Amino acid sequence: MHQFYRKLKTIGIDAYYWIMDYVYIFYWQTVGLIKKYDAKKYINDNSHKDPIILIPGVYESWQFMKPIADLLFTHGYSVHVVESLGYNTGSIEMMAERIQEYALKNHIEQYDIVAHSKGGLIAKYLLNADVDTIKKVITINTPFAGSAYARLFPLRSIRLFLPTSAPIALLAKDILSNKKITSIYSAFDPHIPVGSHLDGATNIRIKSGGHFRIIKDSNVHEIILSTLK
Questions:
Q1: How many domains does the chain have?
Q2: Residue 112 DSSP symbol
Q3: Is 73 helix (H, G, I), strand (E, B) or coil?
């Protein structure tokens, strides 16, 4: 009986995280439609720290990562967002090319990356393409092994997350660049049932649950800042 109630409690907690996750993403998607923030205000030309490029997940504009942009800018970093990514619905290769074009156009020779979900896959693709350009990569709830739930959606932008998809298989082949990656992930992620553990990377599992709300989690913020030092 005790075990039954423990399981029931776990289900209840997971359900809470799931609901609050969607409240959070609905809020930020609404904010993104109503209010447009100035991405250029996060560029600090006087910073002596490595510049950082933020990469959001699929169907997320850069504004979804505003809590992290605010955090990093407050701590003296020059934060760059690639607005040409839009809502990040293109292929991993296409999105990676747009980031490379942005870095070239803005004369960014070396940089760090902080990425959420699909953004982490794009970051790893960039590492495979030019490992010397990127110094550190911090990923948040990235489906490195894909997600079985992608089978439920007919959209190409979602089905690329299938565990058997070509992009996931291709990225999995390269494990050498994983040492530059710090993978942060939730104890419970309703979108990635297998989690975000990545062999060869620094893996940090936090107690909080959810796929989206983790963006504003104070523990995640502390990990990001300590990793970038």
A1: 1
A2: E
A3: helix
